[in-house]
Write a structure and sequence with these properties.
Layout: H1 19-23, E1 31-32, H2 35-40, E2 55-58, E3 63-67, E4 72-74, E5 81-88, E6 95-98, E7 108-114, E8 117-118, E9 122-128, E10 136-144, E11 149-157, E12 160-166, E13 169-177, E14 185-192, E15 198-207, E16 216-220, E17 225-226, E18 229-235
Parallel strand pairs: 1-2
Antiparallel strand pairs: 2-3, 3-4, 5-18, 6-16, 7-13, 7-18, 8-17, 9-12, 9-16, 10-11, 10-15, 12-13, 13-14, 14-15
Length: about 240
């Protein structure tokens, strides 16, 4: 008899258990065909609520996993890059703020913005906390469809340029170093193309203060964004 199950049941006090009920627990750790069936097995009617310390075995990848209270992790593996949160961009918005993003758990972070669409061709801007003037510095290199390259710099600016967007999508991929430490915050990454001529580029910079930030905001220079996701990852300290 296979061990695969599609539900992790919650039994009521005084309930008479059948052989089928007990067979669900015979394997010890619940077994699921995929992560999709694993996720669907918790929180429904007469199902356990997913909580920290839950284990699961996934047949598709032959891995044992545990839930750490925020995400599933593989047993015996300490991931170097941990998904902290996924934020969905709304409809026709000019900015998105992610609160509680940075903490003492991680020193360094990766942010990836993708999918969705926009009303025009423009640059995606980043600020940390409420700091909007006078401290952002950076340098950007762009490659154009003609084969020409261009390098520009921004000093004492109100934000960083971290990505681009157009009517076909939104793109940004960058690292932030030490945003929650009492030190300068450094940034580095690459930008997707924002028009038919600008095919993308790279950028780096720093924020010239020692504020310990917890939040960040992505915004548009002009136009609006619709859909897409902002994925925030933390680099493990050890």
């Amino acid at each position: 008899m296979p061990n695969t199950q599609t539900s992790v049941p919650l039994y009521a006090q005084g309930e008479v258990l059948t052989a089928a009920n007990l067979n669900l627990t015979n394997s010890g750790i619940p077994v699921f065909a995929t992560t999709v069936t694993r996720d669907a097995a918790f929180g429904g009617a007469n199902e356990k609520v997913l909580a920290e310390g839950q284990f699961a075995y996934i047949e598709a990848t032959n891995t044992t996993q545990y839930y750490d209270g925020a995400a599933w992790q593989s047993v015996g593996v300490s991931p170097g890059l941990v998904l902290i949160s996924t934020t969905t961009i709304g409809t026709t918005v000019s900015s998105v703020t992610v609160t509680g993003a940075f903490s003492s758990t991680y020193d360094n972070y990766k942010i990836i913005v993708s999918g969705g669409t926009a009303s025009t061709f423009e640059s995606l801007l980043l600020i940390l906390g409420a700091t909007v003037t006078g401290y952002y510095a950076g340098i950007t290199g762009c490659l154009y469809s003609s084969g020409a390259a261009d390098v520009g710099s921004r000093n004492n600016a109100a934000s960083w340029i971290v990505g681009n967007f157009n009517t076909n999508g939104i793109g940004a991929n960058f690292d932030l170093l030490a945003p929650n430490l009492a030190k300068n915050t450094f940034i580095g990454g690459f930008r997707a193309g924002n028009s038919t001529t600008n095919q993308g580029g790279i950028h780096s910079g720093f924020l010239n203060n020692t504020t310990q930030y917890t939040d960040f905001t992505l915004s548009t220079g002009s136009g609006t964004l619709t859909g897409g996701t902002i994925k925030l990852y933390g680099y493990a300290n050890s």
